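FORM 7B - TANDEM STRUCTURE REPORT

SECTION 1: FIRST PROTEIN
SEQUENCE AND TOKENS:
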Amino acid sequence: MATATAATPAVSRRVVAAEGAPVKRLSLSDVQQGSRKLPSRLVIHGQAKVGKTSMAAYCDKPIFVISPGETGLHTLIDSGIVPNIPNIEIPDFDSLMQFIGELTTTEHSYKNVVFDTLDGFEKEANRKHCTEFYKGDWSESGFLGYQRGFRSVASGPWRELLAALDRLRETKRVGIILLAHTGVANQRRPIGTDFHRYTPAMAKEAWELTFGWSDICLFAEPVVVATKEKGDRVPKGHGGNTRVLHTEWEAAFDAGNRHGLPSEIDMGGNGKEAWDNFLSAVKSSRQIVKQEKTP
């Protein structure tokens, strides 16, 4: 901010933004009723090859923003399983933020921006943060000590990333779709017995922030039934051909939505069916809500 002179009176810091632009004072006339009708912030997580990428490929006018080394979309395109979709591979976290800014400020026709994968980009955020603040030290005396690196990434660059995605969504009115790989981790409980659950392959600090930020979080899973028949020493798994999207939180995984979706959505036999079934569930839920509100 320039130094005030006799010709240029000082402006109170209380009404000046960080960039130097005057801040509008809010009043009751600024209160609005209803929503801004923005596209949803969608997260889909699940184990590798469960169909996350092929499902997102059939959203309306997508562009895929791909983390380093992620080849799933390219393989699906080469195999003819999904259309030839616009995509770009991002080399690092700074480039990711720069490209999100480009999408926010430049005219384009994309309706959905798909980030594949969330955990891949988190690794880049961790790498950047470790280099800048811990001199590349990944040991217990550096980034990994007391989990401080993961906490500072979540409160710093990861929060900035989510804010940038919100600006993109609000400015261009595009849907934001984040895809994440899922693994199995031990859930420690303050009271009761610990147990295993599915959790995205990223630090819990960044994931918890993302989960709370999302409007819809889907957990994609093949349906497997374990049975133990006579003579079996241990139960055997059966099935796996049917895949479903879970929309509500359970002890075994994170999921949730703000649309009144059914607890499970059938993914069908391919990516297009999975996306169409998801859209159909969203539309049906909206219709049910409207009917419930009608006197």
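SECTION 2: SECOND PROTEIN
SEQUENCE AND TOKENS:
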Amino acid sequence: MRAYASRTGTKKTLAALRGANWRLMVSAAGVLRHEGFPYALDNGAWSAFQQGRPFDVDQFVKALDLMGVGADFVVVPDSVEDREETLKMAETWLPRLDDYGHRRLLAVQDGMTGECVAPWLGPDVGIFVGGSTGWKERTMAEWGRVARRRGCWLHVGRVNTRRRLALCKFAGADSFDGSGPSKFDATRAQLNAERAQLALFHPDSIH
């Protein structure tokens, strides 16, 4: 499973990430540099949501022009925890992103089902499991089944604990990202340990 850490400029952290075969998640809302790593491009919607402001189209377009072509994937613009607005944004943006990234990922949100996004999915368009934390954990396995049926990539966002990474493995995710490994040595070590383990049981079945 590919592991993406939030982009950082700290040399010690970058060396540790490189040594453990991490990639970087570059946000359109952050510093637009990949530090020599393979990388993916996030659209910046999560940062806007945290700050209580609308999605910044100009910011995303700038990031797309600078870094979109070389990205492993580009996250299609979305509205965090807003099903209807995210679907409208997907219809608008997907046709504009054909030439960017190795693939495009649709950020699924609370209330979405496979039927909502199935017509778009395939080798070039995959799934980014976003939404609220509870919804993400409850539906991750189902999104894994959708991805297998459609033959598409499955990525899970905001994975900063061993338990959530174990859920990703159980769901059959192809990749995940988190900010913790870029900020805390302990988090990075815990996730590296979990990455090395086989997923034999559902995390909630182990006591």
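SECTION 3: OBSERVATIONS ON SECOND PROTEIN
The chain has a mean pLDDT of 95.
The chain has one domain: 2-196.

SECTION 4: SIGNATURE
Preparer initials: ____
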